[in-house]
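Weekly modeling sync, notes
Attendees: S.R. (lead), two postdocs, one rotation student

Agenda item 3: backlog of single-chain predictions. S.R. asked that every request posted to the team notebook include the full sequence so nobody has to chase files. The rotation student volunteered to paste the first one in as an example of the format we agreed on. Action items at the bottom.

Example entry:
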Amino acid sequence: MRQTAIAIVLLCSTSALASPFRVVIDAGHGGSNTGAPGRAPGAYEKQVTLKIARALERKLKAAGAEVVMTRDHDQYLTIRERARRGPAAFHLLTPNLAEHAALTEAEREHRQADGERMLELALPVIQQAAGGAAEGSVSYRHDPMDAIEEALHDGEFHELILSTLPHSVSSWLHLDLPHRVSHLGVPVTTVVAQERSQPPRSSSQPAHELG
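Predicted structure, as returned to the notebook:
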């Protein structure tokens, strides 16, 4: 089964199906999720990954394998669509909500509990979209890069879906997290929330803590 991960991070993994000759290929990116831009005008990573996926599809079919493409044209797949196209499992990873490492043990445990509550709210949504094949965890690490690296080390995942707040408020985007995790050896899809016009936040309202 193919397994994907979301940080607020989503990790996804796919394992082999009943037949050892059936292969699921996920090109990643697609549609509005362009991936990294190329040197040539209008060139994007999504085009390269799809070209490679199609080449691999041809070679596998020539070898006698049954091939399932999660996308075969320029489109972005939702979790529900990914699950519909082939067996997939999802793991929702939430980094510790602490803003920095200089915390007491009691403070870190408190932020860990905050993360558990966030996970309780988010996981049912992922499970519904994925048809139930989803689990989750809260990392003890506050740095999202450290949390993702640890999860990839401890589990077998084939893709990472990074979900962040809008550009104007996302600390993850300001830290260039999508580019950093792209070097970890698994395909990365970044989903950025749309900006919404809202009234100014008063000083008594808590700031966004994730992403």
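Discussion: group reviewed the output briefly. The first strand starts at residue 2 and ends at 6.
Action items: rotation student to repeat for the remaining queue; S.R. to check formatting next week.
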